[in-house]
UniProtKB/TrEMBL annotation:
It holds the Pfam family tRNA_edit. The lineage of its organism: Bacteria, Bacillati, Bacillota, Clostridia, Lachnospirales. It comes from Faecalicatena contorta. Keywords: Lyase, Protein biosynthesis. SUPFAM superfamilies: YbaK/ProRS associated domain (SSF55826). PANTHER family: CYS-TRNA(PRO)_CYS-TRNA(CYS) DEACYLASE YBAK (PTHR30411:SF0), CYTOPLASMIC PROTEIN (PTHR30411). This is Cys-tRNA(Pro)/Cys-tRNA(Cys) deacylase. One of its GO terms (molecular function) is aminoacyl-tRNA deacylase activity. Residues 38-148 form the YbaK/aminoacyl-tRNA synthetase-associated domain. Belongs to the prolyl-tRNA editing family. YbaK/EbsC subfamily. The keyword Protein biosynthesis applies. InterPro entries: Prolyl-tRNA_editing_YbaK/EbsC (IPR004369), YbaK/aa-tRNA-synt-asso_dom_sf (IPR036754), YbaK/aa-tRNA-synth-assoc-dom (IPR007214). The keyword Lipoprotein does not apply. Its EC number is 4.2.-.-. GO terms for biological process: translation.
Amino acid sequence: MSKKELKTNAMRILDSHKIAYEYQTYECKEFIDGIAIADKLCLPHEMVYKTLVTTGKSGAHYVFVIPIEAELDLKKAAKAVKEKSLDMLPVKEITAVTGYVRGGCTAIGMKKAFPTIINETAAGLNAICVSGGKLGMQLKLAPDDLKKASRGEYADVIV
């Protein structure tokens, strides 16, 4: 496969912003959880983050990037985006809302630019790994670069 064929929308956006990143690919026919992916790629769990999409009481969508071993605190998350309450986006709606498939969802380059919150633990790391925009691909980049590319903010949103 040529390098051009490997480029995802997320990678093209990072390239256009001149943001440095590395990517790793792995064999993946269907979604597996972030912990299994980290183990498969021999990555420390604390540097691998998952992307979750929620719907607010207002009907607006919000993106949260949190450590793979953590759980989203819906109350803290709602407060961070100034919503009364949040619900997880149903799995069957992920592709229609984001343009990405479950397990390949990343905060960079969704169909629309949704407000994005990156858990504040990322700010203390040199690099984090997130989905690359398709199953079987992970991106490694500086947390501040993810924040810039996703137009995100840091906040404490985990249990």
